[in-house]
Amino acid sequence: MIASTRKVWLRNPRHARTRAAIAAGLVALAASACAPGSAAPPAASPAQPGASAVRTDAAALGNVTLTIWDQEVRGGQDAQMKQLNAAFEAKYPNIRLKRLSRSFDDLNTTLRLALSGNEPPDVVQANNGRPQMGAFVKAGHLRPLDAYADAYGWKKRYPRSILQYVSYSADGKVFGEGNLYGLPQAGEVVGILYNTAKLTKLGLRPPETWEEFQAALAKAKAAGEVPIQLGNLDKWPGIHVFGTVQGRHVPADQITKLAFGRKGASWNTPENTRAAGQLVDWVDKGYFNKGFNGQGYDPAWQAFSKGEGVFLIGGTWLIADLEKAMGKDLGFILPPGTTEAAAPVATGGTGLPFAITAKSPNPDAAAAYLDFIADADAMKVLTANGLLPVADTDRQSVKAGAQQDMFTAFGTATKQDGLVPYLDYATPTFADTLGAAVQDLLAEKSTSQEFLATLEKDYQAFAESNE
Length: 467
Description:
Number of helices: 19
Helix content: 40-55%
Shape: globular
Oligomer: single chain
Number of strands: 11
Distance between the termini: 27 Å
Structural class: alpha/beta
Largest sheet: 5 strands, mixed
């Protein structure tokens, strides 16, 4: 959520932690340590070896024990980790893996303290956003991976639209550029889920343009259906809805600057004003279910799975659960553009990336492990366990239906650099700020101008302090 990250989010079922939810839950933790703007000087980053200095022959590293901390605890997540870990140890009997798997919240609670200690784990999953990975980079807790990326070819394997989510400047101030600090396994993208049976009944097809989507909402409302199912009690789901609307009005490069908290952009623009206004217009037209601001996230997607709603704006982490309930009645598309030929623009990113800690005495073995759990064979294992691989997405064999729709959508978005960051990445406090502001906007407690002024205040304050 969350966004892992933003979060949790991750998937499977990210409903337990969406990127916005994730970031919101981490703000307090970030404040207690190396939050951006802290008066404490940043710790020195670990020196980077050249690609020729790293050792990629894991079998020649001698006897090694790697301690791995992850949050892959649910269903297919846990299954794929167990399968890959067993295969790694079989290939490299000289390397023993000591895995500690905890829930997302439990991992976040203990990770900061562990990384600041003298004997941290070798490999950890760290949320991409500023409150966690950014703070860890600033404090010098994570090892830059560029030399390993060059040695293993990661920068050729992963598109720039993915690598930006695990890149920071060495001082942790600039997100989306700089050194590589993690390697993700899973991908995620926010799109539009739809009930195929209801569309057929309404005489509609999956919309291919934003205008067709708007017309479908109007027709669903006129037929007595709930056009869009939403549960925004936890505030972050509304961020995904706003982000989807925003992507039809605001250029992708502007969204990226805003979401990464870069100086020089602004929320107070005509394009953002139009996006906020369209969201309010949806409320006025009754396109959401009644009481959506008081309904939780899980009850919302569960209601959708039972036939309450024609559309649901949500992420790929929902596919597995919804497909179990809806079968062939579930479909998934990227948010359509203003024309059928428009380049894709969708909120998305990665699951929590795996990082190597700065104090690990076994960085070469740890890098070999990262490469193993994210190589082409690993992507097949993720697919077999119902997850969305972050690479080689279009090479996987999956059954026709929502899962295939998901793979196609993510592959299209990444290949065409159509992913824009989760908006809650912008500042250490933006998940709270944006979540509350969207909820007030949807409740019409604030105008579009007041909504954007609230976001601008948080954004600009951080941008200025982060120079």
